[in-house]
Every structure is written in structure tokens, then in C-alpha cells.
Write a structure and sequence with these properties.
Elements (H helix, E strand, L loop, with lengths): L1 E3 L11 E3 L25 E2 L2 E2 L9 H11 L7 H21 L4 H7 L3 H15 L4 H10 L3 H17 L2 H12 L13 H10 L1
Antiparallel strand pairs: 1-2, 3-4
Helix pairs in contact: 2-4, 4-6, 6-7
Length: 198
């Protein structure tokens, strides 16, 4: 049986060990869960182990790297300046312009061009999207009616925060207009950016 040991440092291949089932040293727990292990991508390709070649960090290595860069953790001034302040400013922009009934009022009064402008301003201010994603959404939000349909679905998700409204948000993001052969509008960051900022 192949077992992945998440706390072993090194390359992914170093963390995968073949254990014999004949020794009867392992017992499968009735219920088991692990935040990291439960969300690992499959390493089985065509019935064989296919170990990723990319660099990996253990959870502890990631924590150590964070504290090496930001000595005072989340209260470090460098963390505030380089990691938090611009995200907080984007959150405040979302709160000011989309939450507390503001976006619903813009939809009700069919002020779609203003909604498009707000969306474009927020995605640029957030600084969290890749260049291609930024281009894709910027182009998509030029279609004011498409932007309005997207905002309505986004608001319903923010109100209910459930699997059904999240699926609708994925569909709404994927249905934003995109030029064939250009940047894709449907990526995980484009789907989750505005809910994260809200």
C-alpha cells in the first residue's frame, strides 16, 4: 500500500512510502479526516503512482517560512504593508459599493454601466488575479448586462452561502462573455475573488 506522509520534508517522492499489508501493522480507522490529506490531488495515473516533480513544503515549513519573512506574524508591519492593506482596501470597496443593498439598488434601477465600473475597479484594486484573468474579467465586464447578471448571482451566493448558489456562481462566471482564443473567464480565482473580498 502506498502511503503519503505529509510531514516528511523534501520532494513529493520522498513523502511517498510503499508499506506491506502482510505485516498487519496498519489498521484502517472507521472514520478519518485530515484537512491536507483529504484534499490532495490524485497521484495515480493509468494505475501507477505518478509523483509530481514540483517543490513542496510541509505545513511546518510553510509556517516557518511565514515567520521568517514576517517576524511578528500577522501584526508585523511588513505583513500589513505587503499582504493585508491592499486586500482590506479592496474589501472596503466591495462593502461600500456592493453590499448592504447598494448593488441590489443599482440592479433595480438598471444602472448596469455603474456596476461594471465598480467591478472593474475592484478587480484591479484587489491585485489578486493573474494578468490573463484580469484581462478576461475586464473584457467581460464591458458587457454591462452580463455584468449585471453576474452581480445578481454573486449577491444571491453572498446571502445564502450554500452549494447550490455556489454552483450558480460558477455557471455565471463561466457564462461571462469571452473572446475565443483569449484569456479564460472561468478559473478558480475569478470565481472566488469577490466572495473572498466580501
Amino acid at each position: 500500500m502506498w502511503v503519503y506522509f505529509k510531514d516528511i520534508e523534501g520532494a513529493p517522492k520522498d513523502a511517498i512510502k510503499l508499506l506491506s499489508l502482510n505485516d498487519n501493522r496498519l489498521e484502517l480507522a472507521e472514520t478519518q479526516t485530515d484537512v491536507a490529506l483529504d484534499n490532495l490531488p490524485s497521484m495515480i495515473r493509468d494505475g501507477k503512482i505518478d509523483v509530481p516533480q514540483r517543490y513542496r513544503l510541509t505545513e511546518q515549513q510553510a509556517i516557518d517560512a511565514f515567520f521568517k519573512r514576517f517576524k511578528s506574524g500577522f501584526s508585523d508591519s511588513k505583513y500589513e504593508k505587503n499582504e493585508r492593506s491592499y486586500k482590506w482596501a479592496a474589501h472596503q470597496e466591495v462593502a461600500r459599493n456592493l453590499l448592504n443593498g447598494k448593488a441590489w439598488a443599482l440592479l433595480e434601477h438598471k444602472q448596469y454601466s455603474e456596476l461594471s465600473a465598480i467591478l472593474k475597479r475592484i478587480i484591479h484594486q484587489a491585485g489578486l488575479l493573474g494578468v490573463q484573468e484580469l484581462i478576461a474579467l475586464n473584457d467581460a465586464f464591458k458587457d454591462h448586462e452580463a455584468a449585471a447578471r453576474y452581480v445578481e448571482v454573486l449577491l444571491r451566493f453572498l446571502e445564502h452561502l450554500d452549494a447550490v448558489t455556489f454552483e450558480h456562481l460558477i455557471e455565471a462566471t463561466g457564462s461571462l462573455p469571452a473572446i475565443a482564443g483569449k484569456a479564460k473567464v472561468l478559473t478558480w480565482p475569478t470565481v472566488t475573488l469577490l466572495p473572498f473580498l466580501a
